[in-house]
Amino acid sequence: MTKTIRLLAIAACMVMGLTANAKKMPVPKMYMFGMAASFTDTIVHFTSIQQIDSAWIDTKNDFLLSRNEYSYQLRDYLAQKQEMPQRTCIVVYGKNLKKLEKKYAKIKRLYTAPKKGARKFDVRFLEDADFHFRTIDETPYLEEEEGGVSDGTSVKQEKKKKRGK
Fold first, then answer.
1. Domain spans of the chain, in order of start
2. pLDDT, tens only, 50-76
3. What is the dihedral of CA 111, 115, 117, 119, to 10 degrees?
4. Per-residue pLDDT tens for 124-165?
5. Beta strand spans in the chain (E)
6. What are the contacts of 38-42 at 24+ separation with CB within 8 A?
């Protein structure tokens, strides 16, 4: 169980990354997998590594934008379709498939490899036909962040107009 807590702490650190002065842009391909666990039982779910088209990243630190939304997709699927509410879900992502496969194998090994005196987990794998991550379009959110005004000019441009510059 301490491994689960450690993994969730790492995921929380990733979520709290700063994105100041960074450019946000879509990448043509992103790979990700999800993992779900609970503090009340030993059932652990894994998705396969899936390709996501047009995912948005922060170029400053290569963080996937809306990481929480992707993990909510898995959480909602498990709550509604599998009748397993209150799962803690994470997504692990990368632009390089080979590197992500290594991460996947390492995390999966934590829960499947038998260790002396370790707690046994009931590991379940979700099929692609049952669950697949949907791309989240960040375009509307980015327009709000830039402070677009109704005629398409930005807030900075509006201030310059008011000052007569």
1. 2-12+23-134, 135-165
2. 999 888 888 888 899 989 999 999 999
3. 10
4. 999 999 999 999 887 766 666 655 444 444 444 444 444 454
5. 24-37, 43-46, 50-58, 63-64, 88-94, 122-125
6. 38/84, 38/86, 38/87, 38/88, 39/1, 39/4, 39/88, 40/86, 41/122, 42/119, 42/120, 42/121, 42/122
